[in-house]
Write the structure tokens for this entry.
Amino acid sequence: MTAIDAGAGPRLRLVLILLAIASSIVVATEFIVIGLLPVLAHDLGVSVADAGWLIGAFALAAAVLGPPLTLLAAAHPPRHVMVATLLLFAAGNAIAAWTSQYAAILVIRALQGAALPVFISVGTATVNGLALAEHRGRTLAKANWGFVIGVVGALPAGVALSEGGHWELPLLVLSGLAFIASILVAALFPTVGANFPKLGDQVGLLMRPAFLTHLALTVAAFAATFAVYSYVSVWLNAVVGMDMPEVAITLFGFGAAGFFGNLVASRIADPIPIAGTVAAVAAVTAAAAAAANYHGDMVVLAPLLAIWGAAHTAVVTLCQVRVITAGGRAPAFAMSMNISAANLGIAAGALIGGFVIDRAGLDAIAVAPIGLTLVVAAIAALTPWAGRACRRG
């Protein structure tokens, strides 16, 4: 029996499997561009910084447009919403591979970014509705397997498939996979009612101190982890001395360790979601700091990167479970807000980490996460107080 099968009824098991397949493709679409930036910049005739906006536009659209679009999607059956978003990803990747216009690809990336929170939120809300209350945190963690698979495969697969400068091939592969996934979801996804609360009840989450504190914790946690993760490939190449194929293999191992991190997160998500988040962020920071100091010894570096990768994925899973649980009867909107907060954290972390590296060099890659981890701990300490304030109100 697999991790996905354990404790799941037939409909829930099918939803988890389909969600793992489809969300891995959607998530891979977001992250695969990271490994393609140099060749994209060259072929599109733009600077690497401008090419970086292909990542930024995706994240910004997810942060700003994801929540309102999720509210609009609430009126439609989950299967219809998921098929429509998968077809958007299939068409978008195909058009991006066909065109050579930077502006067109930028618009496509923004549209896909806006659709990602809708897909993930609706799928996760369906899982939340089918899961047993006493195992909800563990089941929601299982729904995160697609994210892990997408991250594990995106960077190394993108680097491998684009060998020789053919960045179009990874996008065409993702386009085909998204189309196949849309057929599977259309044919096999169970008929489940939308079952969303009223609009006022969903938006009302934004008036609850406890929920807002959980969102702030997600922003800080993602800022801490991405302040260092955003530059890990550059650090491996420039400081550790790996060539790009070695970097791709290392990133695959880094992501593969995330499977273990997700498994651990699924075990602690129900009993200690807040403390678990702080512990996972602290583990990322500690492993990254140790790796920065002992990068010359591969015997030491390899397990440190594995711990880093496992903790990185655990942060993602624990943040999802925390915010969805805090969202109560509005899990889809809560999930979309968590994705929005996560993308804000990613952007902030990349900026803060880049600011430190610009001034202190890549050897200081782990400096920014140290300060941000203290912010995470401070917000986590406030979360129980915010919950009590909400109940008093």
Notes: The radius of gyration is 20 Å. Residues 10-44 form the longest helix (35 residues). The chain has two domains: 10-196, 200-392. Residues 200-392 form a domain with the Growth Hormone; Chain: A; fold (CATH 1.20.1250.20).
